[in-house]
Amino acid sequence: MTADPGTLSETTTRPRAVTGLSDALAHALKAAMAETSEAVGTRLSELLPPPDAPEARVLEAMRYAAMGGGKRLRPFLVVRSAALFNVSPSAALTVAAALEMVHTYSLVHDDLPAMDDDDLRRGRPTCHRQFDEATAILAGDALLTRAFEILADPASHADPAVRCELVRELAEAAGARGMVGGQMVDLMVERGIGDLSMDVAAITRMHQLKTGRLISFACLAGPIMGKAPARMRACLQAYARDLGLAFQIADDVLDETGSAQDLGKTPGKDAAAGKTTFVTLLGLDGARERARLLSDQAVGHLEVFGPEADLLRAVARYVVERDR
Fold first, then answer.
1. Residue 154: Cβ within 10 Å count
2. What band does 76 get if pLDDT is binned at 50, 70 and 90?
3. Rounded to whole angstroms, how far apart are CA atoms 24 and 32?
4. How far apart are CA 151 and CA 153, in angstroms?
5. How would you classify residue 150: left for phi > 0, otherwise alpha for psi between -120 and 50, otherwise beta?
6. What are the sequence ranges of the domains in the chain?
7. 23-321 maps to which CATH number?
8. What keywords does the record list, in alphabetical order (predicted)?
């Protein structure tokens, strides 16, 4: 993680291609991601049926947040990692939907006035703007708990030991030593709580918790469900580690260079809040170069899987080439 800054122009608004993702593979990735997004949306609708009870408002808010679109990157990683081990597509989609609920809950809570205070998410009003703060908090709580209810159900996997492992891994990824812990560090630095300072090593660790742990779970879900050997799990875990960090660095770049129309959320908020990001530490060129190197490393970890992992390789290119 010691890359020097690259040589791209500061006025360039999109990262250049890492190694020239072929048109055919780019088309295949776009089609596969769209197909998975639609399938996950259908599964989410099945798992979060329209409400018809007195508590309908919180159920409506859950559906509003979860069915709001987005890249569905984490569900895609679940589905593709599961395909490497011939896991039932239906089971993979169920686990993918559960993970998307956890991710969505985190976005609902992150957008609240007590956290990032955002008005726009996925091109629509944030959940607390569409409903109210109390409803948004409850909707996030309910999405989180619904996710674990789903993972514990036999529809996720016939083997109860596998279901227990999925529950444990996701709980660890989402909790105080994972996503929530990373968010806590982020808030402490932003608000001057304690004596924390952000250099490249510290911000890397923070984002490995805040963003990387759910991406890691997404890539490990497949080998867990497929009862894969430890070596293959380790390769996918290493891939996820580098992919997650590349994704976050690209997000920091886009926050500086993107528009609300492209991003579906308010750009420039990190800079306005004085947050330390990879861009503030490395500059735009240096951040782009770091993301490209991480993408290359992620691809290298997939060698053991051969051409069956081509779409996962394409994802590693996509996360640093995307413009939203």
1. 10
2. very high
3. 12
4. 5
5. alpha
6. 23-321
7. 1.10.600.10
8. Isoprene biosynthesis, Magnesium, Metal-binding, Transferase
